[in-house]
Amino acid sequence: MKALWSVPGLALMFALLAGCVTINIYFPTAAAEEAARAIVRDALQVPEAEPAPESESGVQLSPSEPRHTGTTSAAPVLVWVLERLVSPAAAQSPDLQIETPAINRIRASLRERGPQLAPHFRSGAIGFGNNADVVIRDLSEVPLRDRSTVQRLVSEENSDRDSLYREIARANDRPDWERQIRETFARVWVEEAPSGYWYQDGNGQWQQK
Fold this sequence. Notes:
Shape: globular
């Protein structure tokens, strides 16, 4: 066993580990939620959250960010080596790209249409579908003369939303992420919606927030 930790033994072990490293690019869940929340708040015109409190030194701290005590622990040798076996290009980026001309155009369209949809969300005529689109829930809540307008607005909104989820996946060179992006938005639309709005649960049943 002692020989394993000799220089030749360590070199052999690191070589074997390098051959076994598999690089997986995982869906950046936290970054996707942050991006979705920014877009949804913009579309629904939700006020921005207050900035995080500052420390005594004036450095802004995240609510979940621990204060450093000045003590650090050394990383184990194997962890140190494995971190360097993975190419920086393969490391998962903490950000999700949501700034492209196509995405910006869609966001502007959602923002412009938001005030027109808001009264119908409040009345319960429409609600958030569990597929991250808008669904007509009860058209009887809309005056007869306005029903065709509401149907048109919902159709245009869903077209924009479908394009948005697809464009975000494309902007990050991961079209296979479109389903997960849509699932993230489906949850965030409901979380950011004002009280009283209607939404579909996972079984398609209507609930009021």
